[in-house]
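Exercise 7b. C-alpha cells:
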C-alpha cells in the first residue's frame, strides 16, 4: 500500500505563504487522484484541493485563488502552495488518496497555524 508523508507546516502570519509537501512511496503516476484535506479545531475534516493523474484540479471555494495544488512525478510528491493565508486556514493538513479516505485511513498530517 502506498505510504504518504506530509511536511511543510508551521507558524505563519496572516497574509503569508507556506508550501506543504506530500511524498508518496510509489509512483504517483499510478494514483488516479490525490488530495489535500484539513481539519480545524472543532470542525469536520474537509477537502481543500484535488489533483488527478491528468493534472486537472479542484478547490474548495474558501481557498480558490489562494491555494494551488501541483505535483512532481519524478519526486513522487504532491504540493500545496498556500498564499494569502488567513487565521481560518489554521488546521492540521493531510494528504490522501480516495481509497484511504473511504476507509477513514489518515496519516499524521502537518500543522498549519496562521496568526493574526
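Sequence design result:
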Amino acid at each position: 500500500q502506498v505510504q504518504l508523508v506530509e511536511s511543510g507546516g508551521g507558524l505563519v502570519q496572516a497574509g503569508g505563504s507556506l508550501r506543504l509537501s506530500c511524498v508518496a512511496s510509489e509512483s504517483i503516476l499510478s494514483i488516479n487522484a490525490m488530495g489535500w484535506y484539513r481539519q480545524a479545531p472543532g470542525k469536520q475534516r474537509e477537502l481543500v484541493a484535488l489533483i488527478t493523474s491528468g493534472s486537472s484540479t479542484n478547490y474548495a471555494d474558501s481557498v480558490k485563488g489562494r491555494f494551488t495544488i501541483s505535483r512532481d512525478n519524478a519526486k513522487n510528491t504532491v504540493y500545496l502552495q498556500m498564499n494569502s493565508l488567513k487565521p481560518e486556514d489554521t488546521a492540521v493538513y493531510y494528504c490522501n488518496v480516495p481509497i484511504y479516505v473511504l476507509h477513514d485511513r489518515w496519516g499524521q498530517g502537518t500543522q498549519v497555524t496562521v496568526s493574526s
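Instructor comment: The mean pLDDT is 96. Residues 98-102 form the longest helix (5 residues).
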